[in-house]
Design a protein that fits this description.
The complex is a heterodimer. By secondary structure, chain A is mainly alpha-helical. Chain A has 24 helices and 4 strands. Chain A is globular and about 80 Å long. The chains are: A mainly alpha, B mainly alpha.
Chain lengths: 846, 125
């Protein structure tokens, strides 16, 4: 691959040469002007919009909390009605978790990760943009409902039957919650795909796994957790919405359903989510501590242990939110044990930070102040966490203010304080200037005091018997003073946060820019100039140490003078490097797409589907669905798997890399693999539902009840098998140059897939299964519909490949699309196999 | 590149031990849920279930033990040092081996934790 004579090597020491390169890079990476600004997809724009929107929702949810605290300041208060209070606490929890805590991780990672990896951008900038627009539309939709008195009002975990029955919760509140948040979950999964591929495939040459900044490890773990945690909630949302809209009795015990299933699906998501929130914030601490201890982290492997270990164990905790539901003690014991075990890796990373600080020479800056406050607060929350992880204690404290105190200590100590540290630390990367040291100290001490004033007394209120989510309390309960102190503390805390907001927003036109690498940090994100250039890094560096700014001589100068890879943009294309997973050996020069309105349009149309469905406007919803599909196809057709003008490119230092890669070495193949893993997890959630009903019923399927039969599902499975074989055959024959037969197989596979989906639906239809009768026919239908919808998507994909082949966009050498579609079909066939086994064969076995 | 008899560590070998923990966890939980649901007879003895979980525990501890032993040996053969920030394939390998060792130890303890409930609880209450 290496051919130094391929093109004349430019003289990087010639200022004239460099000026030309910089002009071209600037032109290629420039942000669109005017109204076209909103078509930007570069990580610097999307990341900043994403962060700003998340903070906007956070301030909104904070105001809701202050209203609640006014209501609770004195006993028997009537400042708010009970109904409005219910909307406030529901939306406060929902917005803080779904519109702030999780999205802020994605937002910050989109800004920082490419900088840390010395990459020009993440591999799928338009996917990031799509995620952002989905998030914004869904967030405004959910939050806006409160201004119409229509907000969800049943708590952020939406337990049925309170939420499924019209007589308890009239109106659209639960629908807004379910559909609005399902839509946002799409954004989170998009971000997970982007970030996993980013950390694994877009590291700079030389950055082996053992040299990756710790932030990268955390991002990898958290993105993988999103992939396993969010899909079960999507499955739950589907069941829930089918019950709300069409009376399918998934959670109705009178017809064989069970409300506990929702609690399982919600908390299989909900508990890992706590760690999905906590780990990225602690990742910021892992970057800040070495800088201010002025030494490398002590115990890099131990942090990796903590991140990966927590990622796994956090999936074994979900039932500790359900200790009072009457599950067998042995089951509770398993979850209690895991809840205690997770304290081990969590504790390890705190000791690593302390050890690094103790062995370094600590500079007590504002970020360090927030880090210290975060660790102290989090440890208190962690200790009460160990208490409520014990079943007998939890039975006493369940649904009291003790739990409210615990979760706020964990979330504010584990997430908001580290994030505030991150704001002060990373602000120069965003705006080129430092925030005020004086205001930062004020902000910290006001917040820290206010926080403890607000939440410490809640431990007492809870143990004294004050239930959470109550609109008011009697004076005789004896918690009046504690609540008054909490309310005062809440306002003090809010005032402290407003100091940060002021510090960020205040005009500072005449203030000079910060020095480069203003904190004297060692990690590559500090290569950025003050103010930063849109290209990210001047040249993609070779990284051979963990702290290249400390440990590699002349690192900044070599990067700036373009002495590393991709110092130029000769062809006027946005480019970055793709490297191998273990050792980051260069594999491809990846061209990433530039500004486009397509992600925004696709997000708006997808959002319209969810919003119209909420209001049961079926025809507009259907139209929007067709248009959304078309917009995504247009986006893909124009912007992905573009055949380059030449097979290889000289990326500098005598290295020539391919411009087009397909199969397991390509980023697109990984994205498909990761997306389908998430999709498979949602399917596992639905299949879990089937097995759950199987365990709680003495006989399932219920005796005498009609099923889908064996014939039609078996025929369907046969057709799925044929379509799967056709997709693999199309890929292999196309690669072998037999384009004609390959096209025939694509067409055949597309039709077979439609037939397979239809045959699967025909079974329950022809036997007259009515999903509103009982949970068994409802479960059969939901599995069949899920699989049939995937068959329709699979058919569309093969049709798309056929068109691409006919129009010369797939050739035997350029076959990324068909090779990704063949990968989809592996998952598709596995889904069909499980569905048919459950529907047709499993009932014969038991 | 690597010494004779050594296997190359990857992200998959890194997460093998906690995956075994996850399997053990799901197995124990599902088995008890299946045996005790639909909660009709809370005083039913679950002796057979406990024995099966016991067997699963021993099997999983054995497998994690093998991972632990392999990681320990290869890490020791590679020098066993705690420094693994060099720009070499050996350092990357050493880092993965040591991290695998730590994760396997954590998984071992976590599987033991998961077995404690059935040591103490004998029925479906």
């Amino acid at each position: 691959m290496t051919d130094p004579t391929a093109q004349g090597t430019p003289d990087q020491d010639d200022p004239e040469v460099r000026r030309g390169q910089e002009d071209r890079l600037r032109e290629v990476w420039k942000t669109p002007k005017g109204w076209r600004y909103w078509s930007a997809v570069n990580n610097t724009e999307i990341g900043v919009w994403y962060t700003a929107a998340s903070f906007g929702f956070m301030l909104f949810a904070g105001v809701l909390a202050l209203l609640m605290r006014v209501q609770l300041a004195v006993p028997e208060n009537d400042f708010l009605t009970a109904t409005f209070y219910n909307q406030l606490f529901t939306l406060h929890g929902t917005a803080m978790m779904f519109l702030f805590a999780v999205p802020i991780f994605e937002a910050v990672a989109i800004i920082l990760l490419p900088q840390m990896l010395g990459a020009r951008d993440l591999p799928f900038p338009r996917l990031s943009a799509f995620g952002f627009w989905c998030f914004l539309i869904g967030g405004v939709f959910v939050s806006g409902s409160i201004f119409f008195g229509a907000a969800p009002a049943s708590g952020w975990f939406m337990y049925p039957p309170l939420t499924t029955e019209e007589k308890f919760t009239p109106g659209l509140g639960p629908d807004i919650w379910l559909l609005g948040l399902s839509f946002i979950e799409v954004a989170s999964i998009a971000a997970a795909v982007e970030l996993i591929v980013g950390t694994l495939k877009c590291r700079p040459p030389g950055m082996r796994l053992n040299l990756m900044p710790l932030y990268g490890w955390y991002v990898l773990v958290v993105a993988a957790m999103i992939l396993f945690a969010f899909p079960p909630l999507i499955a739950g949302d589907i069941l829930f919405e089918m019950e709300r809209m069409f009376d399918w009795p998934f959670f109705d015990p009178a017809r064989g359903g069970d409300p506990i299933l929702w609690q399982h699906l919600f908390w299989i998501f909900g508990h890992p989510e706590v760690y999905i929130v906590f780990l990225p914030a602690i990742a910021l601490v892992a970057m800040i501590v070495p800088t201010f201890a002025q030494r490398p982290i002590l115990g890099y492997s131990w942090i990796v242990l903590a991140a990966v270990g927590t990622g796994f164990l956090s999936f074994g905790l979900w039932v500790h939110h359900m200790y009072t539901t009457g599950l067998p003690s042995a089951s509770l014991g398993f979850f209690s044990a895991a809840s205690e075990a997770v304290a081990i890796p969590t504790g390890v990373q705190i000791f690593v930070f302390l050890a690094t600080l103790l062995t370094g020479q600590v500079i007590f800056s504002v970020p360090m102040l927030f880090v210290a406050g975060a660790l102290a607060t989090f440890v208190i929350g962690g200790l009460t966490g160990v208490m409520v992880a014990l079943v007998p204690f939890d039975w006493q404290a369940h649904d009291t203010y003790f739990v409210v105190a615990h979760l706020h200590y964990v979330l504010i100590g584990g997430m908001l304080f580290p994030l505030s540290a991150g704001i002060y630390y990373y602000w120069p990367i965003v705006s080129g200037r430092k925030l005020s040291d004086r205001l930062g100290r004020w902000a910290f001490w006001i917040m820290f005091t206010g926080f403890n004033l607000a939440f410490l007394p809640m431990h007492y209120s809870g143990l004294a018997g004050m239930a959470r989510r109550v609109w008011t309390y009697p004076a005789t309960l004896g918690v009046g003073t504690a609540n008054l102190i909490s309310s005062i503390g809440a306002f003090v805390f809010a005032a402290g946060f407003l100091v940060i907001v002021w510090d960020v927003l205040r005009p500072r036109g005449r203030e000079p820019y910060a020095d480069r690498n203003p904190w004297n940090a060692g990690t590559p994100e500090w290569l950025t100039e003050m103010p930063g250039e849109n290209w990210g890094v001047r040249s993609v560096p070779i990284v051979t140490t963990r702290y290249p700014l400390w440990q590699q001589a002349n690192f900044i100068e070599d990067v700036d003078k373009g002495r590393f890879y991709l110092p130029d943009a000769e062809e006027g294309e946005r480019e970055t490097l793709v490297t191998s997973v273990l050792d980051a050996r260069p594999e491809q020069c990846l061209r990433v797409p530039g500004p486009s309105f397509m992600p925004m349009i696709a997000a708006a149309l997808t959002g319209a589907v969810f919003i119209f469905t909420t209001f049961k406007f079926w025809i507009p919803a259907l139209v929007a669905m067709v248009l959304a599909t078309v917009s995504i196809m247009v986006w893909l057709w124009r912007g992905t798997a573009v055949i380059p003008e030449k097979p290889e490119k000289n990326v500098g230092l005598g290295l020539s890399l391919p411009l087009y890669v397909s199969g397991p070495k390509s980023t697109g193949w990984w994205a498909m693999f990761i997306t389908m893993t998430g999709d498979a997890m949602a399917f596992v959630g639905l299949a879990f539902g089937y097995m759950f009903y199987f365990t709680i019923h003495a006989d399932f399927p219920p005796p005498g009840m009609a099923g889908p039969g064996v014939l039609w599902p078996s025929l369907s499975l046969g057709l799925f098998g044929a379509a799967w074989a056709a997709s693999l055959g199309a890929r292999n024959l196309n690669r072998a140059g037999r384009v004609g037969i390959a096209r025939g197989l694509m067409a055949a596979g597309s039709l077979l897939s439609l037939g397979a989906g239809a045959a699967l639906l025909w079974g329950p239809w022809t036997f007259g299964l009515n999903p509103a009768d009982h949970v068994y026919p409802a479960t059969v239908w939901v599995l069949a519909i899920w699989t049939a919808v995937h068959a329709a998507v699979g058919s569309l994909m093969l049709g798309y490949c056929l068109a691409r082949s006919v129009f010369g966009r797939i050739t035997p050498r350029h076959d990324a699309d068909i090779s990704n579609v063949a990968l989809y079909w592996h998952f598709m066939f596995a889904t069909a196999l499980v569905t048919v086994t459950l529907l047709a064969f499993f009932p014969m076995l038991v | 590149m690597l010494g004779l008899g050594k296997t190359e560590d990857t992200l998959w070998t890194l997460i093998a031990a906690p995956t075994i923990w996850a399997f053990h966890f799901l197995f124990s939980y599902t088995l008890v849920a299946w045996q005790c649901a639909p909660n009709g007879d809370p005083f039913r003895d679950i002796g057979g279930t406990r024995a099966m979980i016991g067997v699963a525990t021993l099997t999983c501890l054995g497998l994690i033990g093998l991972i632990l032993r392999r990681a320990w040996r290869e890490w020791r053969e590679g020098g066993g040092g705690f420094r693994n920030d060099q720009d070499t394939a050996e350092a990357r390998e050493g880092f993965l081996e040591f991290s695998t060792l730590l994760l396997a130890a954590l998984s071992f303890v976590a599987v033991l934790f998961e077995t404690l409930p059935i040591v103490m609880i004998g029925d479906c209450r």
